[in-house]
Amino acid sequence: MPEITELEQRLDLLREGIEWPATPAMAGRIAARIAAPAPARRPWFRTQWALAAAVVLLAIAALITYTPTRDAIASWINLHTIITRVNQLPTPSPRPSGPLGTRLGLGEPTTLAAAQAKAGWRVLVPASLGQPDEVYFQVDAPAGEVSLVYKVRPGLKVSGETGVAVLITEVSGRVDTNFFGKMLGPDTTIEDVTVNGHRGWWISGAPHEIFFVDANGNFRNETLRLATNTLLIDDNGIVIRIEGDLTKTQALEMAASLS
Amino acid sequence: MEGRPTDGDLFTRAQRGDKVAYEEIVRRYQEVAFRTAYVITGSSADAEDAAQEGFVKAYRALATFRAGAEPRPWLLRIVANEARNRARSAGRRRQLELRLAERFRPGDAAPSPEAAAVAAEDRSRLLALVNGLSEEDRRVIASRYFLELSGEETAAALGIPQGTVKSRLSRALSRLRARVEEGSGA
Predict the structure, then answer these.
(1) 3-state SS record for chain A
(2) Chain A 45-64, CB below 8 Å of chain B: which residues?
(3) Domain-located, residue B2
């Protein structure tokens, strides 16, 4: 068909004008990943206690293999030094309908000052985003949980489902990396980062859950609200997570401006 | 033979464990891999992840690459698979929005500034129509015309049999043409 041919020519012409996002230089990072040796063994493995330890490990391994609570045991004895992946993450249960706070399980709407008064820590706000559009306080966690909602900000994509561009959640507790395996599906990747000297993790590929130890020392898991790329930070007693359709650079910039 | 090694040479060397050869493969293919992943995911962050993960997986799967086969479709299939997984988990929140470079001027000199402006407007209208197509149509058109992938590579990128590429492309072009005609009031 002649019209198709003409259209094809116009598409060919269009090609030169397309502005692609810059291709990141990946060769170095990929080389580092393929060069990485098998996970390092613990130093104590080489000591004279190795045999005794091996016997104990064997007993524990038997226990782990045959008890339903093997994850719990593995975490007590800190065996999760290698992050394992689950093949299928549990599908998060659907959120109830209603206002945003209810739908996302953020708790009650409040103001920044009121949330600060209730929270057991100093609530941090990213200077790069300014004041949040909405603030929520959730009484579920021992010292409460504060969520900052940012709706529209230049250069940030807004989630069509929730109308939220960035969601920042702060809770008193610490990150326990033993449980990372539980939140990583086959398509999720995790990367260590440092934010203002604090440990952080950039989790990309739609993770659904995070695990942390709350202010009372109990393990807790929480559904990530937007199931988008997430930056998780352990800020000496506060677990901060930044969720949104963000690039790593954007998330790190926000995190660095938290004050 | 002296000079630049062929892709086939590099693959053979990489299969023998030559990591430097594989790095060169990554450098040669990272742009097409990243852009293919971008066409699929509509997000440069996801495209970067998919391309990176794909290259790592491809390295681990080098043993399955048959000597003498075409390396590009083989690699693109792995990267595109990663990209499709990410696009699926991102759901419908994202859509590919291709853009025109602002300072773009067509290769052949335009007769006048007015004509150039008309041509630029025409191109951005056409691109907007491509952006407005269904995901399936947009991916096949972008693969063939914007990424210049071969039939085999397009099949690899879209995860469909090679025999399906032609019919899918012709259906996508018909739908695009219908929209072009609608827009021009024809």
Answers:
(1) CHHHHHHHHHHHHHHHHEECCCCCCCHHHHHHHHHCCCCCCCHHHHCCCHHHHHHHHHHHHHHHHHCCCHHHHHHHCCCCCCCCCCCCCCCCCCCCCCCHHHHCCCCEEECHHHHHHHCCCCCCCECCCCCCCEEEEECCCCCCEEEEEECCCCCCCCCCCCCCCEEEEEEEEEECHHHHHHHCCCCCEEEEEEECCEEEEEEECCCCEEEEEECCCCEEEEECCCCCCEEEEEECCEEEEEEECCCHHHHHHHHHCEC
(2) none
(3) no
**pLDDT of B11 strictly over 50:** yes
For tokens 């782990």, the residue is: A64
What distance in Å separates residue A236's CA from the closest CA in chain B? 29
Q: Tell me which residue in A10, A13, A27 faces B26 most closely, judged by beta carbons.
A: A27
A99-158: pLDDT as tens digits: 777 778 788 899 999 999 888 889 999 999 999 999 999 887 778 899 999 988 888 888
Contact call for A11 and B145, based on CB within 8 A: yes
ipTM over 0.90: no
CA–CA min distance A221, chain B (Å): 20
Judged against a pLDDT cut of 70, whether residue A81 lies above it is answered with no
Q: Which residues of B touch A206 (CB under 8 A)?
A: 86, 89-90
Alpha-carbon gap: A217 to the closest alpha carbon of chain B (Å): 32
pLDDT tens for residues A24-57? 988 888 988 888 753 444 454 455 566 677 777 7
Q: How far from B147 is each of B16, B69, B142, CA to CA, in Å?
A: 31, 21, 6
- Report yes or no on B106 lying in a domain: no
- List Cβ neighbours of A38 (8 Å cut-off, separation of 6 or more): none
Q: Hey, are the CB atoms on A3 and B177 less than 8 Å from each other?
A: yes
Per-residue burial over A140-153, b = 16 or more CB atoms within 10 Å of its CB, e = otherwise: ebbbbbbbbbbbeb
- Hunting for tokens 């690899």 — which residue is that? B156
Q: State whether B50 and B83 are in the same domain.
A: yes
Number of domains chain B is built from:
2
Instruction: Give the structural domain span for B118.
Output: 113-183
Return the structure tokens found at B134: 């269904």
A38 touches chain B (CB under 8 A): no
Q: Is residue B174 part of a domain?
A: yes
Q: Using the 8-state DSSP alphabet, how is residue B69 labeled?
A: S
